[in-house]
C-alpha cells in the first residue's frame, strides 16, 4: 500500500481526535532506520524532481505544490530543512507566509497566494498558506463570518484552476498533540539557539487549541477535493513526519510518469559540430 | 591561509590565461576526500546560515548575496545542487537569470536584478547575474558601446549601495578551460538525461570563447571592489569547485561574527506561563 493511500484523509466530516498523532502508519521503521530510509530516498527524489524541472524545456505545463499546514511547532520548518532540503534547490520555490501586510490585507486573501504559485517545472512549497485565512481568520475573527464561509469555495475554485493548469497539489496537515507542542515550546525556551523561533504570541494561540482544531476540521472537510486532497501526517515523531512527507512527495512525482524530454535539436549534427570545432 | 585570501582576485588588469583552471589551490585533498570534506562542512554551514536567518528577528539588516558567473557548463548548476543544497532551503533565495524578457529589456538592466536582491537574513544566490549585461551584452553587442561602458560604474554603484544596506557580497567566477567545456558539452549530448541542458546556441557562444574571456577580464578588473570582491574559482575539477565555494561561503558567514539574537521576551515568565497551562 502506498503512503498516499495510507495518509489520504477520507471524505466527509473530520474528527482530529480519532487520529493518533504519535503513530507511524505505513512505515515499518523506528527512528534510526527511519532517518536512514529518508536519506536513501534522496537520489530518487532528486531524479524525479529534475525530470519535472527538465520537462519545462518541452513546454510541459506541470509543476507541483506542496502545502504545509499545522499548529505552531508541528514541524513545517523541519520538513523544509530535512525533506525539501533533499531535492535540488534550483527547482524549489519556498514561500513562508506570515501575517499579511497592510498592502496584502487591502486585497482578496488569495492575491498574495496567487503570486507565489510555482511556474512550470518547479516544486513550490507553501510554509503556511491560504488556509491561514480560514484558520486564524476564523478563530480570531479576522473577517466576518460570511466572508470566512465564502473562502472555502473560493479556495476550492482556486485550487481547481491550478490543477487544470498543470499543478499537482499535495496538501499536508502536520498533526501534533497539545502535549507534544508544550514539550517543543519548552525546548525553544530552554535553548538560546531556539529563542528566535519563539514568540509570546505562540502561547496565546495555544490557549485556543480546541477552537483551532475545530477550524482545521471544518477546513479539511470542506477543501478535501479530488484535485487537491488532504493528507494527515501524524507529527509527534519528527522522523516519521519528515520521512512520510518525503515518501508522499516521491510517490506523487512518480505518478506523474515523467521522462526526460526529447531533444529539440539534431543530436548527431550537434556532436559533429562540436567534434569539429578547434576552440582551445 | 583562508580560501578567501587564496582565491581573491588581485586588483588590477586580469589575464585569465595565467590562472590554471585545473588546479585546486588551498585544499590539500583529492576528489574523494574533497567530497568528504564538503559534506563535513554541512553542519557548520547550516548553523552559520541559521544564525544569519535568525538575526533578522533582531532587525539585523545583514544578508548575503552569492553571485555565480562562468562560461556555459562551468558548473553554476552543480554548485547550486551540491553546495547551496547543503544549507537550510528556508533561508535561501536562488534566482536563475535567463535572457531578459521584453518587459525587462524595456527597463534599465539593473531593474530585474534589484527585484531579486535578498531580504535581511537570507542567502540570495544569483545563477548568472547583472554581469551578463557586460558579458554577452558586450560580446554580442546587445547595447551600444557607451551603454556598456556606463554599466561597469552602474554595477559598482549598485553593489556599493547593497553593501551599505547590509548585504555581504561574494562574487565567484567559475573558471574552466575550453577543453573542459568541450568534454562537458559532449557529455550532455551523449546522455539523454542531460539533453535538456543543451542548446545549439551553447555551441554558437563557444565560437566566441576568446571574446568572452576578454569581456570577463574587463568586467573582473572594473568591478573588483573592496565591498564586492571577485573570487576566481578554478573549475575544471567539479569536486574542487563545489568544495571551494562551500568554504568561501563558510568563511564569509564566519567573518560576520553572528550570534543567536537575544530574546525580546522574558524567558522565565514565558516558561512559567507555559508550565502552568493546562491545555491537553
From TrEMBL, chains A, B:
Q: Does the keyword Transferase apply?
A: yes
BP GO terms, sorted: polyphosphate metabolic process
Task: List each copy of the Polyphosphate kinase-2-related domain by range.
Answer: 30-254
Matching InterPro entries: P-loop_NTPase, Polyphosphate_phosphotransfera, PPK2-rel_1, PPK2-related
Pfam families attached here? PPK2
Domain of life, per the record? Bacteria
Provide the alphabetized UniProt keywords: Kinase, Transferase
Q: Name one GO molecular function term.
A: polyphosphate kinase activity
Return the PANTHER family for the record. Answer: POLYPHOSPHATE:AMP PHOSPHOTRANSFERASE (PTHR34383:SF3), POLYPHOSPHATE:AMP PHOSPHOTRANSFERASE-RELATED (PTHR34383)
Q: What is this protein called?
A: PPK2 family polyphosphate:nucleotide phosphotransferase
Amino acid at each position: 500500500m502506498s503512503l498516499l493511500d495510507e495518509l489520504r484523509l477520507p471524505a466527509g466530516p473530520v474528527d482530529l481526535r480519532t487520529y493518533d498523532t504519535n503513530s507511524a502508519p505505513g512505515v515499518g521503521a523506528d527512528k534510526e532506520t527511519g532517518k536512514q530510509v529518508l536519506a536513501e530516498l534522496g537520489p530518487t527524489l532528486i531524479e524525479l524532481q529534475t525530470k519535472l524541472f527538465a520537462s519545462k524545456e518541452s513546454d510541459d505545463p506541470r509543476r507541483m505544490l506542496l502545502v504545509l499546514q499545522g499548529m505552531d511547532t508541528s514541524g513545517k520548518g523541519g520538513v523544509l530543512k530535512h525533506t525539501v532540503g533533499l531535492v535540488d534547490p534550483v527547482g524549489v520555490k519556498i514561500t513562508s507566509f506570515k501575517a499579511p501586510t497592510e498592502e496584502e490585507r487591502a486585497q482578496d486573501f488569495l492575491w498574495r497566494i496567487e503570486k507565489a504559485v510555482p511556474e512550470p517545472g518547479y516544486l513550490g512549497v507553501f510554509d503556511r498558506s491560504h488556509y491561514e485565512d480560514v484558520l486564524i481568520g476564523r478563530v480570531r475573527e479576522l473577517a466576518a463570518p460570511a466572508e470566512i464561509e465564502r473562502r472555502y469555495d473560493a479556495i476550492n475554485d482556486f485550487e481547481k484552476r491550478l490543477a487544470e493548469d498543470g499543478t499537482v497539489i499535495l496538501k499536508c496537515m502536520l498533526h501534533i498533540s497539545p502535549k507534544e507542542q508544550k514539550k517543543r515550546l519548552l525546548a525553544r525556551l530552554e535553548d538560546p539557539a531556539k529563542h528566535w523561533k519563539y514568540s509570546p504570541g505562540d502561547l496565546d494561540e495555544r490557549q485556543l487549541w480546541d477552537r483551532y482544531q475545530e477550524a482545521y476540521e471544518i477546513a479539511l472537510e470542506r477543501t478535501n477535493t479530488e484535485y487537491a486532497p488532504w493528507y494527515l501526517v501524524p507529527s509527534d515523531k519528527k522522523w516519521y513526519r519528515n520521512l512520510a512527507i518525503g515518501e508522499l512527495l516521491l510517490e506523487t512525482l512518480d505518478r506523474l510518469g515523467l521522462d526526460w524530454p526529447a531533444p529539440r535539436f539534431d543530436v548527431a549534427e550537434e556532436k559533429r559540430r562540436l567534434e569539429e570545432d578547434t576552440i582551445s
